[in-house]
Amino acid sequence: MQNADIARRRDAAISRGVGMMTQIYADRALNAEVWDVEGNRYIDFAAGIAVVNTGHCHPKVMAAVTEQMGRFTHTCHQVMPYENYIRLAERLNDKVPGDFAKKTIFVTTGAEACENAIKIARIATGRNAVIAFGGGFHGRTFMGMSLTGKVEPYKKGFGAMMPDVFHVPFPMGPHGISTADAMKGMEKLFKADLDPARVAAIIFEPVQGEGGFYPAPADLIRAIRKICDDHGIVMIADEVQTGFARTGALFAMEGYGVAADLTTMAKGLAGGLPLAAVTGRADLMDAANPGGLGGTYAGNPLGIAAANAVLDVIEEEDLCTRANELGSRLKQKLEEIRATTPEIIDIRGPGFMVAVEFADPGTKAPDAGFTGRVRMEAQKRGLILLTCGVYGNVVRFLAPITIPEAHFTEALGILEQAVAAARQG
User: Which positions are tagged coiled coil (predicted)?
Assistant: First the structure.
C-alpha cells in the first residue's frame, strides 16, 4: 500500500472541505513515533493537535479502554448511567481551578463543550450577547465559528454567523497589540454597540491555539475577571488545547490567580478518544432544565475510562513537571537557532505549548512561505510539525509530553536542520 494511492482514493471519496496537513497515512503509532503505510517512521510533534499528551497507545490508557470494552461500549448515560462517568466528574470538579462548588457535563468534542458553555451562560444569566477575541478558535459548529476570530478558512463562504457575538482584539506582542489595546476595544464595544448588561459571557483561550500560541497576559485575565464581576457576566476559559499538563500545569488558568466561572476542555482529556467536558460553578451548571444538556454519545464509556487513566498517568508520571522541562529545552534550542536565523521574531509559550514565529528580516512582514518550508523540510527528515497563526507564520510544537529522551533529542536536531534548509530556499 502506498501513500499516493490512498491519497487518490481520498480525493475521490472525501469532501475537500476536510483539510489535510500531510499526505502521510498512518499505520501504527507508539508514544511519540508514527509509522505510515509504507513503513516510514516519523517523530510526532503534533500529537493529533494536543490530543495524545500522554503519547500514542499509552499502556495504562489502552488497558483501561480494553477493560471497559469488555464490559460495554455504550448505554447512553441519560438512559443507563455508569459510575466511572461520575468519578471522572468528581475528579474534574476537584482539579479545575476555582474555590467554589463545581459540577460537570460531558460531551464529545471541543466545539460542543464551547457551545454548551454558551448555552449554560445564557440560561443562567437570561442574556444573549457573547464577547470573544480576535484570533481565537472555538470550533466549527455555527456558534463555534461565530466565536472564532478568524475568517479564513473557518467562516469563509458559510453565510451569516450567529447573532449577538462580538470580538475585541487579543494581545499579540509581535504585532503591536497590547492588553491596553484589548481593553480599549472592550470599552469601545460597550460605548458604541453593546450594553454590558446584555452580555452573558466572555470566552477566551488562556493561550490561543489556532491563533498563534499567544499566551494571554496576566493583566488581561485579571481585567476580564473584573469586567465579569462588575457586570454579572460569566467568564469562560476555553482550555480545549491548553488542558491536561500541556502548559506545565493541569490547566493553564492555574497560573493566573483568578478562576473562570466555566472551563471547557477536550483534546488531551481522553488520550485520543473523543470526549469533552464543561466544568464550572454549580449554580450555573444547574441552571438548565433536565434534558437541556447532554447528547447520545456524550460521555461515552470508552472515553470516560480513557480519561480516568489519563489523569492517573499525568499524576503518576508527573507530566506537568516534564512539560516544563521539555519546553525549557525546546526554547533553549530555538534560541540557539535564532542566533543564525533572523527570520525568527518570537519564541513563546508556557510549558510544552511552545511556538516560534517567522517574519521577513527585511520587511518584518509575517512570512508564511518560510514557515511552510520549515514544516516541509522537517517532514522530509521525519519530523511532523504544525503551523498556525492568523498570518500562517507560526510553527507550534505539540509533541507528546511522554516523548522519550532519545526521540526528543533527535527531533531537536531535525528541527535545526529543517530551519537551515528553509533558509537556503
Answer: none
Q: Rounded CA gap, 24 and 42, in Å?
A: 10
251, 96 contact by CB (below 8 A): yes
What is the rounded CA–CA span in Å between residue 56 and residue 384? 14
Q: How far is CA 149 from CA 65, 238, 273, in A?
A: 36, 14, 27
Cα distance between residue 35 and residue 17, in whole Å: 26
pLDDT in tens, 91-137: 999 999 999 999 999 999 999 999 999 999 999 999 999 999 999 99
Domain-wise residue ranges, the chain: 3-57+318-423, 62-316
Cα(230)–Cα(305) distance, integer angstroms: 40
Q: Cis omega (within 30 of 0) on the bond before 153?
A: yes
Q: Which CATH architecture has domain 62-316?
A: 3-Layer(aba) Sandwich (3.40)
Instruction: Return the number of other C-beta atoms located less than 10 Å from residue 253's C-beta.
Output: 24
The secondary structure element, H or E, covering residue 281 is strand 276-281
C-alpha cell at 241: 488545547
pTM of the predicted model over 0.90: yes
Looking up cell 463562504, which residue turns up? 157
d(CA 180, CA 140): 30
Q: Cell digits for 408?
A: 526528543
Has residue 425 got a pLDDT over 80? no
DSSP states along 262-310: EEEE-GGGGTTS--EEEEEEHHHHT-SPTTSS--TTTT-HHHHHHHHHH
Residue 22 and residue 379 in contact, taking contact as beta carbons nearer than 8 Å: yes
DSSP string, 308-377: HHHHHHHHHTTHHHHHHHHHHHHHHHHHHHHTT-TTEEEEE-STT-EEEEEB-TTT--B-HHHHHHHHHH
Question: Alpha-carbon distance 205 to 398, whole Å?
Answer: 16
Q: Which three cell numbers stand for residue 177?
A: 497589540
Q: Which residues pair with 199 in a beta bridge?
A: 129
Sheet with 394-397: strands ordered across:
344-348, 354-358, 394-397, 386-388
Q: How far is it, in rounded angstroms, from Cα 53 to Cα 272?
A: 9
Q: Would you state the cell numbers that stand for residue 328, as one nine-digit string? A: 525549557
What whole-number distance in Å separates Cα of residue 425 and Cα of residue 97? 46
Q: What is the CATH number of domain 3-57+318-423?
A: 3.90.1150.10
Query: Could you tell me if 189 and 180 are in contact, meaning their C-beta atoms sit under 8 angstroms apart?
Result: no
Contact 247, 326 (CB under 8 A): no
What pLDDT sits at residue 19?
87
* SS3 sequence of 27-58: EEEEECEEEECCCCEEEECCHHHHCCCCCECC
